[in-house]
Specification:
With 159 residues, the chain is mostly helical. 64% of the residues lie in helices and 5% in strands. Strands 1-2 form a two-stranded antiparallel sheet. It has a two-stranded antiparallel sheet with strand order 3-4. Helix 1 runs antiparallel to helix 3, helix 4 runs antiparallel to helix 5 and helix 5 packs antiparallel against helix 6. 26% of the residues are buried.
Amino acid sequence: MKGDFAPYLGELLPSIFAMANLKPTMGIAGQEALVDLNDVINELQTETPEGTIESKLNVNTDETEEKDVAIQMLSVFIDEMGAAFAQYVEPCSVIILAHTQYFANDSIRSTCALALPGLIKCAKEVMGVCPQLIAMAKTYYSNLLLAMKEETDCGCLTT
């Protein structure tokens, strides 16, 4: 359907954006309060003598799975819709850039890294090469560099 599906995006994307923005929580037996999963992950990370952060965790919960599925859906829409997705590039960029450094799940990080070129392609189909597109590419590039510095999973780095 590709571009013919565009009229339905306005109805679908708000719920997908909401799923992608879920903030998974985690509880510990004996405690009543739930805490943000990222806070727990940050506590479990250790710094190596070389000054890098090390974490071998990959958390899979219903909430992280929902986030992952939502981001994968966004990635498919980006790749399949092309220029028809252009009006959603900005809100989608905010979500995807925020999750390139989501340390709780390596699948989410990989999917986000793979989606960024598609967003540039969508914008390029509409705007052509212009200063805004170049600024967008620079923002994506710098975000990926920061994410790569903190990445602990070789599979994510090769993505």
